[in-house]
Amino acid sequence: MTRLRRHVPQVCSLGLTLACLIASSGCYLSYGLSGAERDAGGALSDAAMSDAAMSDAGSDAGLSCPAVRADYVCLESFLVQPGRAFSLPLSFATCGCCIHSECAVGVDASTHTLSLTTALCADTCACDACNTPTVSCEVPPLAEGDWTVNVNGGDAFALPVRYDSGLVPPPPACVDFAQPSLCPGDRALPGLSSPVALACATQDGLGRDAYVLEVTDPCGGCSSDSACTVQLDPRYTDDLPPGGELTVMANRYFPGCVDCTPGCVPVTRVCPVPPLVPGDVYRVHVEGVPPFIFTAGTDARVCAGGPIGL
User: Fold this and answer.
1) Which listed site, 75, 79, 246, 259, has its alpha carbon 20 to 30 Å from 87?
2) Are 272 and 27 in contact (CB under 8 A)?
3) 138 in helix, strand or coil?
C-alpha cells in the first residue's frame, strides 16, 4: 500500500524573491548514517524502515497547485543513506518570479519505488527575474537497496540507498528526467545510449546561473527522450587549469507502440549541468564527439563535432 506525504508549499512575495532563490539553489543531500554509526546500532531493519516510511508519509496528498511534472534533479551525490529522512530537490525547466510549488511523496517498500507528485501554481507576479522553480520533496527513511524514482506517473531515475563506505562519495550530477512512455510495457528508464554528432556547452537562459549541454542525435526522429545524466568529476591532472570533467550520458528509447516511418531526423536534447565555478575550465566528454573545453562564466557557447549528415 502506498501512502502520500504533503509538502508545505514554498511561496515567494516580490520582497522575498532573493531569499527564495537562495533557498531553491541548494540541491544537495546529506550523507546520513556513516559506517561507524551503522556498526554502533544506527542501522534499522528493512521492516522497521518500511513501517517508519509508511507512517511518516501520511495519507493525504492535498496538493492545491495543478500537477506539473518537474524536469530534473541536481545532487551533490546520488548516494542516500538508509534509515534517515532526506530532502530531494526537483526543478522545473521554466522561469518563475513568485514560486508556489508542492510535492507529495509515496513510498512502496515492497517494490522499492519512490513515487513523487510535483505541482506548480501559475505565477501571479510580474518581474524581470528568471528564477528556476524548485520544490523540495521530503522523503521518509528508506530501506537499503536500489530505488526506482517515479515522477508524476513516469519513470525518472534510479536512486541507490547505501551505507557510506567512508571512501569518496559519487560526484555531483544532474539528471534530466525520462519522459513517460505512452506504450504499455515500455519503460523510459534507462534507455539506450544515443549516438551524438554535435555537442555544445551553453550558458543557461532559464535562471540557473550555470550551463546546459546540448547533444544532437543525427538520426533520432523515431525515438523519445530517456534519462540524460551529466556527471561532474574533479580533475586530478595538470594538463588544464583548475576545473573538472563533465561526462554526458544521453539516453533515448524507441516506443514499441509507435508506428514511425524510418528516416533520419536530427534531434537535440538539453541536459542540465551541476553548478560550476566561474573561471574554472571544464572538459566535456560525449560519446561520438571529441572532448572539448570551455571556461565557466566567460565562454557563452562552445561546440564540438562536425555538421550533422543525414
Assistant:
1) 246
2) no
3) strand
What is the distance between the alpha carbons of residues 205 and 95, in angstroms, rounded to a whole number? Answer: 9
Place of cell 513510498: 107
Pairing of strands 267-272, 173-176: unpaired
CA dist 116 and 158 (Å) reads: 13
The H or E element containing residue 20 is helix 17-24
- Encode the chain (310 residues) as per-residue pLDDT tens digits: 443 433 333 333 222 222 222 223 333 343 333 333 333 333 333 333 333 333 333 334 678 999 999 999 999 887 888 999 999 999 998 888 888 999 999 999 999 999 999 999 998 888 887 888 999 999 999 999 999 999 998 889 889 999 877 777 788 999 998 888 888 877 776 678 888 899 999 987 654 557 899 999 888 888 888 889 999 999 988 888 999 999 999 988 888 888 887 778 888 989 999 999 999 999 999 998 999 999 998 888 999 997 655 3
Residues 18, 23, 28, 33, Cα dihedral to 10°: 150
Angle (nearest 5°) at CA 73 between 139 and 142? 25
Strand partners, 173: 75, 231
Q: CB–CB of 85/138 below 8 Å?
A: yes
For 147-162, the three-class secondary structure string (H helix, E strand, C coil) is EEEEECCEEEEEEEEC
- Its pTM stands at 0.76
Spatial separation of the C-alpha atoms in residues 208 and 268, rounded to whole Å: 20
Strand 243-253 vs strand 281-286: parallel, antiparallel, or unpaired? Answer: parallel
Phi, psi of 282 (to 5 degrees): -120, 140
Residue 140 DSSP class: P
- In total, the chain counts a number of residues equal to 310
User: CB burial class (10 A; 0-12, 13-18, 19+) of residue 184?
Assistant: exposed
